[in-house]
Specification:
3-stranded antiparallel sheet; mainly beta; 4-stranded antiparallel sheet
């Protein structure tokens, strides 16, 4: 496993969002690299809308931010294999 690679195979981050048409959509980030901020713009939704219901299906800790670019004072950490409800809103994530 490369130093920057923190997940392999079918391990992924899973989250849901609501599209501009009002449908629930599920998105995945497969094999995220460690230490890199990943923005999570929901597909088809208005700018500034956050995703929710994250499930950390990787072998690394995920730190979610309500703001884009992994910035801001509002964040939440999920251990490997953990998940959270739709109330946890997120716009970006970094894995360690």
């Amino acid at each position: 496993m490369a130093a920057a690679q923190i997940a392999s195979g079918s391990q992924a981050l899973r989250c849901t969002c609501t599209t501009a048409e009002g449908y629930e959509a599920v998105g995945f980030v497969n094999d995220p690299a460690g230490g890199e901020c990943i923005s999570l713009p929901p597909p088809g939704s208005a700018p500034g809308t956050a995703s929710g219901s994250p499930q950390n299906r990787t072998d690394a800790t995920a730190t979610f931010f309500l703001d884009a670019d992994c910035e801001g004072d509002t964040y939440y950490t999920l251990l490997p294999g953990a998940g959270a409800s739709e109330r946890l809103l997120l716009r970006s994530v970094v894995f360690s």
